[in-house]
Design goal:
43% helix; Rossmann fold; alpha/beta; single chain
Length: 700
């Protein structure tokens, strides 16, 4: 069970008493009067590039360039102008994004600027105009294209590459993809990195300069495009300034009234109730002082959904006809995507101008919320912290109820980078003169910690490169082990060690990386995917095309003839087992499992058991295969209604969509095995068509 950091943990006390309804009397400290007077919309003015934007545009014309600037400061403008310059000379550009949603947004944006005929998109789910002069896609697709180019001895079809959200280099799960791209990208191709503020931009630029034999310029911008004011909501309903300016030019400190509140013993502090925050009252306070629209960052999906229920007493604010406009827009979305019509939270969206946005929601629902929020039609969105990464719908105010976040395993305090990314959503450029970050005191709020975060420098990005079987197989397509050792020596981790910047406790990282590669290589030799001399066997060559999480288990399934190669429904279902990472809390009754499906599943499980144990004994991950996702995807492939499939899966809609999309992605890689397994490749193509339908895929 996930545990909170001791810093924030308090034992949970249960009471049989019905929770009291808390009423807040809206008020504001007199010291805020001058600040609130500045609230408003900036005057319309012709766009004038900032100095850092022009500096970056000049730099990228002559060298690689890393731009580190706050969220919403206009980094995309730099990429747009640089791409236009390449495009005007007949060159090709690649714009890589970490998220499919962000790729879709940039595709629409660039299509409007350059013309749809000149722009293509490659995300796995979408493949449109792949030979266009300007390609927008995910980083994994770009990395795979680099693998293919190295294997064929060809040049990557690009003259310019942009890596958006480049701080993902430090992402524990996906950072390796960013690092691989930077290592493999030919030196002839200029590289533009766009990032939120990061602490060690000079180190990253120094590393790139060392491996690409050309200077990487660093362009920094620290100033937010819209000033940010930190606020504190006293539980009585009074807004207070969170900080006050320190004397002699020092850092700002907590304001006296907030400090007096915090000094009280916890038992004496008046606090908002932990499980029944009066969000309707909070919204009235924000409405009174023109602090809407707002994004409330909550700790869980359930909290986001629960917050809507606690707002039933709220009245729709704004123009008299806004409800009609909202209904018309929602109906328009619903005509294209029927699942929106019957969404369980539609009433709140239509009647209260409020929405819940998290990974458990349908992608169509989330996209609709983003567009409505961006168009100024919503008062607030309740969201998990993941909304801060790569999704563009800023607000006038962001509200914090927690000073920690769940990272998938445990609760940890927000770090400076995460906090700055979240506060970066406060204040809409061109729509706000000023933005606000509001702290609400409650059980999981360390006010002093978050106050420090306002002025803390951004975190350093750490190398996350790690070896996996897909990487080893693909590098062996075009390199021998000695050459691969040279490539690995070009990692960011190796650079930090070489420059003395890496901590002593990690100084064996370079050797560990090579040793890990050799462990993977030796296992591939033992299992017949690589020869004793380090070259791929025939099996290794086709297995290299399985650029998925568990390539060896799937490859072994084909090699042993365990996977269904002539039944598209069964193939889609069985592949879902290799994708799913979560085990259901309940076992599915066998009577609900079609006999052919159960037989196919057990055949795979029993057939791969020995190989999986062999992997496990050597320290490699081999996930347990679970039946429930198999049953769910089988039902979906056979045309069962979405709600029935969701019941079978025991998943939230967003998780079921992700399971389906990842299954389709694995099937796409199987589709590439035309020479080795022509029947399976054709069946995979049919399976993709069966499972990619509304609401998994959509058109908005």
């Amino acid at each position: 069970m996930a545990k909170r950091s001791k810093r924030f943990f308090r034992p949970k006390r249960y009471s049989r008493k019905k929770p009291k309804t808390t009423h807040l009397k809206a008020g504001a400290d007199a010291s805020l009067r001058k600040i609130f007077a500045e609230i408003g919309v900036p005057e319309n003015a012709a766009f004038t590039p900032d100095a850092f934007q022009l500096e970056a545009l000049t730099a990228i014309a002559h060298s690689d360039c890393l731009v580190s600037a706050p969220t919403g400061s206009g980094k995309t403008w730099i990429a747009e102008k640089a791409i236009d310059r390449i495009h005007s000379t007949g060159g090709k550009s690649w714009y890589a994004c970490p998220l499919k949603a962000l790729s879709n947004a940039k595709y629409a944006e660039f299509s409007a600027i350059f013309g749809r005929q000149h722009v293509g998109i490659l995300t796995g789910d979408r493949k449109e105009n792949p030979d266009a002069a300007i390609i927008v896609g995910t980083t994994e697709i770009l990395r795979n294209q680099l693998y293919d180019a190295m294997h064929r001895g060809e040049l990557l079809a690009a003259d310019f590459v942009v890596l958006d959200e480049a701080h993902f280099l430090g992402d524990p799960d996906r950072g390796v993809v960013w690092e691989e791209i930077m290592i493999y990208l030919p030196q002839r191709i200029p590289l533009l990195l766009l990032s939120a503020t990061i602490g060690n931009a000079d180190q990253i630029a120094g590393w790139l300069s060392s491996i690409r034999s050309s200077r990487c310029a660093v362009i920094r911008e620290w100033k937010r495009p819209v000033p940010l004011v930190p606020l504190f909501l006293h539980p009585c309903g009074t807004l207070l300034p969170l900080t006050e300016s320190a004397k002699a030019g020092g850092k700002e400190k907590i304001s006296k009234k907030v400090n007096d509140y915090l000094k009280k013993k916890r038992s004496q502090q008046r606090r908002l109730p932990d499980h029944r925050v009066p969000f309707d009252n909070v919204l009235r306070v924000l409405q009174k002082y023109q602090l809407l629209p707002a994004i409330f960052f909550l700790k869980s999906r359930a909290d986001c959904d629960r917050a809507l229920e606690l707002c039933r007493g709220k009245l729709l604010t704004g123009q008299h006809d806004r409800k009609g406009v909202l209904k018309e827009r929602i109906d328009s979305f619903g005509r294209q995507n029927p699942h929106i019509y019957n969404h369980r939270q539609r009433w709140f969206l239509e009647n209260l101008a409020l929405g819940s946005h998290h990974a458990g929601q349908l992608p169509t629902w989330k996209l609709m919320l983003e567009r409505l929020m961006s168009d100024g039609l919503l008062d607030a969105v309740f969201a998990t912290s993941t909304v801060a990464a790569g999704v563009n719908f800023p607000a006038r105010t962001v509200v914090f109820l927690n000073s920690d976040r769940f990272n998938g395993t445990q609760f940890l305090p927000l770090d400076a980078t995460e906090f700055h990314q979240m506060t970066g959503r406060a204040g809409r450029r061109g729509m706000d003169n000023i933005g606000f970050a509001l702290l609400l005191p409650n059980k999981y709020m360390d006010v002093r910690w978050l106050t420090r975060m306002f002025h803390s420098p951004p975190e350093d990005v750490i190398s996350q490169i790690k070896i996996n079987f897909s990487m080893v197989l693909n590098l062996l397509l075009s390199h021998d082990p000695t050459q691969i050792k040279d490539l690995l020596s070009q990692s960011f981790a190796s650079y930090l060690i070489g420059t003395g910047a890496q901590k002593k406790s990690r100084r064996n990282r370079r050797r560990h990386l090579w040793d890990d590669f050799l462990n993977h290589l030796n296992f591939l030799k033992e299992t017949g995917y690589v020869t004793k001399t380090g070259a791929l066997t025939a099996d290794g060559k086709w297995a290299s095309q399985l650029r998925v999480d568990q390539p060896l288990l799937i490859a072994e399934g084909f090699r042993q003839g365990l996977l269904p190669q002539n039944d598209s429904h069964l193939l889609a279902a069985i592949i879902a087992a290799f994708v799913s990472e979560r085990e259901s809390d309940t076992k599915i009754p066998k009577k609900r499992v079609p006999k052919p499906l159960l037989g196919a599943f057990l055949r795979v499980v029993k057939g791969l058991r020995s190989f999986a144990w062999q992997m496990h004994d050597r320290g490699f991950e081999a996930r347990v295969l679970h039946l429930r996702p198999v049953v769910a995807i089988n039902a979906w492939a056979n045309g069962e209604p979405w709600e029935k499939v969701r019941t079978l899966a025991e998943m939230e809609e967003g998780d079921l969509v992700m399971l389906t999309l990842r299954t389709a992605d694995n099937l796409r890689h199987i589709r590439r095995l035309k020479r080795a397994f022509p029947d399976a490749a054709e069946t995979a193509d049919q399976a993709i068509e069966l499972i990619l339908r509304e609401p998994v895929v959509y058109d908005l």
